[in-house]
Amino acid sequence: MSAAATTSEGGLYPPSAFYFKVVFGSGSEGVDSSFQDVSGISFEMSTEEVPEGGENRFVHKLPTAIKQSNLELKRGIAPASSPLVAWCKEVMEGDFIAAIVPRTISVYLLNENAEPIRGWTFANAFPIKWEVEGFNSTKNEVAIEKIVFSYTYSNRVM
């Protein structure tokens, strides 16, 4: 069996879900993409039920729109110098004085060589929730922050 046949992209094994990266905007704002969890990459088609005239055995289901959930990112609490923290602070604590500047967020699933094998972009994203998980003096865990983003649309790029 060749090495190429056993890779996650073209061979026997599905890709691992633990090796991924997140990029904000152009990615030139500094490295701020170390997350423990990315969720919310989902698409669902809404349908409308239309009964058949004179036929009571079934109902037609017609597509109406694509629903997308919010994108959720979790990580250890980042320092105040983080560009993502600065953006969230600007949006959440800005009292709507300045316009919210949306950004493109890209999520890439990586292979064992750190090359993207799947990717999704989320256009016009902005934070809508910034949560710090509870503290507990009886556990020895990292303090976690969760950031939830709304976006206009998303595309699978590979």
From TrEMBL:
Origin: domain of life: Bacteria
Sequence intervals crossing the membrane: none
Protein name: Phage tail-like protein
